[in-house]
Every structure is written in C-alpha cells, then in structure tokens.
Design brief:
The two termini are 18 Å apart. The longest helix is centred in the C-terminal third of the chain and has 40 residues, at 406-445. The chain is built from 19 helices and no strands. Helices cover 74% and strands 0% of the residues. By secondary structure, it is an all-alpha fold. Helix 10 packs antiparallel against helix 11, helix 13 (279-309) packs antiparallel against helix 14 (314-340) and helix 15 (345-363) runs antiparallel to helix 19. The protein folds into three domains: 12-211, MFS general substrate transporter like domains (Growth Hormone, Chain: A, Up-down Bundle), CATH 1.20.1250.20; 213-269; 271-516, Up-down Bundle (Growth Hormone, Chain: A), CATH 1.20.1250.
C-alpha cells in the first residue's frame, strides 16, 4: 500500500485532510459540477437541433455534420495538454479561463450566421470544454478529504453519465419551445453562475515550471484528429473502399506509434511516465475504452431506435431513458459506501460489467411488440451496472496517484473514455446501417411467389395506386423488422465486449481502503 506522501487513500484518521481545504465546500462543488454538467450536456444537446441548423445556416447534409465533428476533434486534441497548462499557468486560472471560453463560445454559436462561423465557434467551445472535464474531476479530489473522495467521484460520475441522456431531451425541448439558438444560449447564464462561484471559491496549485513537449503533443494531436475524422467520415465514404479513410488510418497509426516511442524515450515527455507504471491506473485507462465502447454506444443507439421504430418523440424518449440515470445514481452511492467499508473494488467492477452484460442480453430478446416497461427495466439495470463500474474504477485509478499527477491522470482517463465512445458509436452505427441492408435482403427473399399467391399479393396490381400503397407498407414493415434485427445484433456485440473486459480485473491490484 502506498503511503500518504504518494497520494494514497486514507491511511490514518489524522491524515484525513484535503490537499486544498476550502470553506463552504458545498458551494464550490455546486460550481464545479455545474461547469462539468454543461460540458457533458453540450456533447449531445445540439444533436436534435442539427436539422434546424442545416436550413438556417444553409448547410448540406454532409457539411452540417462538421458542427459536431469540429467540437469533438478540438476537444480531443486539446485535452492531453491539460496537465501541462495547469502546471504552467495554474489550475485555478486554467479552470476559470476554460469556463469563460466555453461560455463566450456558446454565445457566439448562438449568434452564428453561417456554417463557417458555427464550425469555428464550436471548435473554440470544444477547446474550452476539453479542460473542464479533467479539471473538474481533479479539483473535486483536491478539495475533498480522502475518506470522502469516493462520494465526490460518484457525484462527478453521475454528471458524466446522466448528461448524454438529458442532452437530447433538453435540446429537443428548447428547439421546440424557442429555437435552436437557445441550445447554446442556455449555457450563458448557467455558465456565468458557475464562473462566479469558481472565481470566488476555487483554490489552486502553485505554478510549476514544466517544459512543453511539442513533438509529443503534435503526434498525439494528429493521431486523435485522424482517428476522429476516420470515425466520422468512414460511413460517409464507405470506409476502406475510399483512399480518404486509408489516409486517416495511416496517419492515426503512424502518429500513435511515434507518440508511444517518444513517450517511452523522451527526457521530458508530455505525460509523466509514472502514470503508466502505476498498474491500477494503466488498467483503468484500458477499462475506460471498454466503458466508452460498450456503455456509451448503447446510450447513442437507444434514441434513434425508440424514435424511428417505436414512434417515440424526443421528450418521451428522454423520459423512458431517464431510469438509466437513476440506476447510475443509486449504484454510485452504494458502491461508494461499499468501498468505505473495505469491499474490494475489483469485485464491484466485475459485478458491474456482469450486470450491464445481463441487461444487454435481455435487450437481445426484444421485438417490435415490446412496450416501455422493457426499456425502463433494462435501462435501470444498465444504470446500476454502469455505476458499479465507474466509481470503483475511478477510485482505484486515483487512490495511489500522487496529487501532482491527478490532472494529467484525469485528462488521460477522460480522453480514453472519449476515444472509446467515439469508436463504439461509429462501430454500432455502421453495423446497424449495414445490418439493415443485409437483413432487408434476407427477409425480402422469403416473400416468394408461393407466399405471394397465398397472401394474394400478386393480385394487388389490379388495384393500381392502392396496390402500390399496400406493397409500400409491406416493404416498410420489412425494413422495420430488418432494422430491429440490426439493433439486436449491436446489443449482442456490446454484451460480449462487456464480458470480454472482465478478465482485465485479474491484472488489477487491490486498492487501499477508504476510511470514514
């Protein structure tokens, strides 16, 4: 077990003191969580407003996607330098500047008059949001005594998990009630409140001179940008049938390889190598990729399935998915208490993945006849599993990290989760689209002349437009069934990924106990 000087969890009652004690911590926590929730919400809140933006900004279906892509790429490229910037200008100053940039960029997005302006302002918003996620996590840990850190991780994780669920609902409500610009304007007053609290209450670390690793940053940034472009553009250009995707893939692989070699050999790399020699933190990074791929991809699949196949509107979709957030909240509170009582985090992570896999197994048995109770029950179950994974994983990752490595560590964990989420979402969407085509062909092949004569479909041409309408309805039903099968196949894949991640638990070491 690491000693207190290495940033371990509570070892003795007299050591149970926050690294950066503050007065009125609940107010500071509110300010930090408000900023964090805004950043997480903004990843998905504007998705439902994209069709309205397209007509207003004069964009085409292909170019309007850059409103989302520019934010994701800018955030992914900027996030790795969070730790260096926090040391160079101070974590307090960086956090306040990040929230200010996010709020200003949100206001600019709301007044954008064309696609070029919107893409530029969304990129600025992505840069501001990139620093908010890791700084909010490390700030909560720094201002909380070790025995209460699991509860703070639970609170922060709840915002991360619930944000993607609330985003489309809030975005749809604002778009319907007002217009799409309020999807961005809503960030301004809320962000200003968070900014005022942070300015008044947020403490900061002393500035530490640290050389900037330009080559390492360039290689990591190029690798992440190329990967994101590959994932976003792949389905548009039919993946590796196009030279464009090969270019992105080649850049991503070569730059990632160069970054790994440089990180292992450079005198002063962008990330402290102690992060990667800490076995629990390294395994947590790998787990975060699985969390992003398997769990966040499912969250992305559910809204289009409910709206396109079951006829739910945006508001009803959000209400049906809400129990997933309730499950996350309950499980994080339970797992936090269990960690404080000395339960091994490895058992909780294993149980969490098993619960998520079980919920996905139930989802593979769905049909177009299921009702909302199935969505609510499996969503609640899945939320419980996610909560059991997320909190113990983060607590274990940070329990033996020195405090000065927390910001870098938080940026890496958030980056791995973001990369996993992008990979997972792109993978399941591509599988769903291809599965729809394949399943439609297979189902349509069963409508043979013999079946047609039995159903008297062959006689429909006598009724002219009415016969054509009937055939159109029949084709639509085949399409619905084919799409449902494609979604079920995606759920099955996510289930096996969750089960495949469990053996990684064997590589983790037991983390120190959190006292109370």
């Amino acid at each position: 077990m690491a000693g207190p000087e290495s940033g371990s969890a509570l070892a003795a009652p007299q050591d149970d003191i926050a690294q950066l004690p503050v007065r009125n911590q609940p107010l500071l926590v509110f300010g930090i969580m408000t900023a964090s929730l805004l950043q997480v919400l903004d990843v998905t809140i504007c998705n439902v407003a994209i069709p309205h933006m397209q007509s207003s900004l004069g964009a085409s279906p292909d170019t309007v996607s850059w409103i989302l892509t520019s934010y994701i790429i800018a955030s992914a490229v900027a996030m790795p330098i969070t730790g260096w910037l926090a040391d160079r200008i101070g974590s307090r100053r960086l956090f306040i500047m990040s929230v200010a940039l996010f709020v200003i960029a949100s206001m600019l997005c709301g007044v954008a008059q064309n696609l070029e302006e919107m893409v530029l302002f969304r990129a600025l918003q992505g840069v501001g949001g990139a620093f908010i996620a890791p700084l909010s996590q490390s700030s909560l840990l720094d201002t909380t005594r070790p025995s209460r850190q699991p509860q703070m991780i639970a609170l922060w994780g709840m915002g991360v998990m619930i944000g993607p669920i609330l985003g489309p609902v809030l975005g749809g409500y604002l778009t319907q009630l007002l217009n799409w610009r309020w999807v961005f304007f809503v960030n301004v007053p809320v962000g200003a409140l968070s900014l005022a609290i942070l300015y008044a209450k947020l403490p900061g670390h002393p500035i530490r001179r640290r050389k900037f690793d330009m080559f390492g940053f360039a290689m990591i940034g190029l690798a992440l940008a190329s990967l994101q472009l590959l994932l976003d553009r792949g389905h548009v250009v039919d993946w590796f049938t196009s030279p464009e995707t090969w270019l992105y893939a080649g850049l991503a692989i070569s730059c990632a390889w160069a970054a790994a070699i440089h990180l292992a050999t450079a005198k002063e790399p962008l990330f402290d190598r102690r992060l990667f020699t800490n076995i629990n933190f390294s395994i947590a990074m790998v787990f975060m990729v699985f969390v992003g791929v398997s769990m966040f991809a499912v969250i992305a699949l559910m809204p289009p399935m409910l709206q396109q196949l079951f006829g739910y509107d945006v508001i009803d979709t959000g209400l049906v998915l809400m129990p997933r957030g309730v499950g996350v909240l309950l499980a994080m509170q339970i797992s936090g208490q269990l960690l404080r009582r000395g339960v091994d985090a490895r058992w909780l992570v294993t149980l969490g993945f098993l619960v998520v896999a079980g919920s996905l197994h139930l989802m593979t048995g769905w049909s177009l006849a299921v009702d909302s109770t199935h969505f609510i029950a499996t969503g609640l179950m899945q939320g419980l599993g996610i909560g059991l994974v997320f909190l113990p994983l983060n607590a274990t990752a940070f329990s033996t990290l020195p405090p000065q490595l927390r910001t870098d560590g938080a940026s890496l964990l958030n980056l791995m989760r973001s990369v996993g989420s992008s990979v997972g979402i792109s993978m399941v969407i591509t599988m769903a689209a291809r599965g729809l085509q394949t399943n439609h062909e297979e189902l349509a092949a069963h409508i043979t002349p013999e079946l047609a004569s039995t159903m008297d479909i062959s006689a429909l041409d006598r009724f002219q437009q009415y016969g054509e309408a009937a055939l159109t309805l029949a084709n639509a039903e085949v399409t619905r069934q084919a799409a449902m099968i494609a979604y079920l196949n995606d759920f099955a894949l996510m289930k096996w990924l969750c089960l495949g991640a469990i053996p990684l638990v064997l590589l983790m070491r037991k983390s120190p106990r959190y006292g109370g």
